[in-house]
Amino acid sequence: MPAKRARGASRQPAATASSTSAAAKGAATSSVLVHRCRFVDQVPDPVESLQYDPSCSRLAVLRANSDIELWSLSEGGWFREAYVPGVPDTPVRRLALGSRTASHPDGRLFSCGLHGVVTEWDLARLSPLDNYDSLGGAAWSLALHAGSARLAAGCEDGGVTVFGVVEEGLENVYRLPARGGRVLSLAFSSSGGQLVAGGADGSVRLWALGGGGAARHTWRHSCQFVLESEGRKRPPLVWDVLLLPDSLVVTADSSGRVCFYDGRHGTLVNRFRSHEADVLALAATGDGSHVFASGVDHKVSLFTPQPEELKPHQQPLAIFNLAAPRPPRQYLL
């Protein structure tokens, strides 16, 4: 019996040695290769302005560092067609993008900024093509009407400079007189015969082209009104404006309101407190049946005309044999 116990004791160290070698072999076969990757911590600059061309197939993007990007729509989706790095100490504020033509196959791109210069860009060489003085100091807003070949720039002094867009550049400069504060927003009517401007002093001004003859190229001041301050010391800033086909003016201001005014008389039609902070952007369909608003509170609001059966007056009003014009459309949020 003692011999058997000794024989079993002699086998124990051999088993321990074999298990150790097997563990070492398994550790060698389970090794993992590690690849180290480094990624660029890219923080894109905020978007300052967006502008479509008339065909809505191209989009110009302006960033806060004055970088300009041109995006195009293809069958596979959107892709970046061109990139123009921003110039230091050149605060660009707004863009305007024109259509492709036979003489300009790459389209036409304009910009304005607080340096008081309106620039046309060469999209083939991605460099400035020509510079024009705004004639009113810093340029805060820009609007292009391709059909009538007009480009308007809103300036620091409260005036608006209207350029004629020709094949060689910009000419036929017409200066609308300065009234009120700096012009923060501009919009043409669908026909290009009317222009509306929103100011930093809460004022909204409308101009219209003159009649026939020599006055057909002359702008005249047709209407002006100021947004209500509602107990504030100063009226709100008019960040954006629209001019709908039925002479209805839409305003977006710093109090979070979207207002609809009758552009013929400057009277308030509808007012909506649709946002909790500044409303910065407006957009509308071609017929004005849908109006969109967006602002700082990350909310997008949709406004549509009031249904016909709810309108109080469907026919022109007859007062002492005088026909009053049909009131503008009422809108719902």
Describe the protein's topology:
Layout (H helix, E strand, L loop, with lengths): L1 H28 L17 E6 L5 E6 L4 E7 L2 E8 L7 E6 L11 E5 L3 E6 L4 E7 L5 E7 L4 E6 L4 E7 L2 E8 L6 E6 L5 E6 L3 E7 L9 E8 L11 E6 L4 E6 L4 E5 L4 E6 L6 E6 L6 E5 L4 E6 L11 E3 L2 E3 L6 E2 L1
Antiparallel strand pairs: 1-2, 2-3, 3-4, 5-6, 6-7, 7-8, 9-10, 10-11, 11-12, 13-14, 14-15, 15-16, 17-18, 18-19, 19-20, 21-22, 22-23, 23-26, 24-25
Strand order of the largest sheet: 1-2-3-4
Model regions low in confidence, pLDDT < 50 over at least 5 residues: 8-12, 313-325
Q: What percent strand?
A: over 45%
**Count of helical regions:** 1
What structural class results from the helix and strand content? mainly beta
Largest beta sheet, briefly? Answer: 4 strands, antiparallel
What is the distance, rounded to the nearest whole angstrom, between the alpha carbons of the first and last residues? Answer: 101 Å
- Number of strand segments: 26
Shape by Cα distribution = globular
Bin the helical content: under 10%
Mean pLDDT reading: 83
Order of helices and strands: HEEEEEEEEEEEEEEEEEEEEEEEEEE
Rg from alpha-carbon coordinates: 32 Å
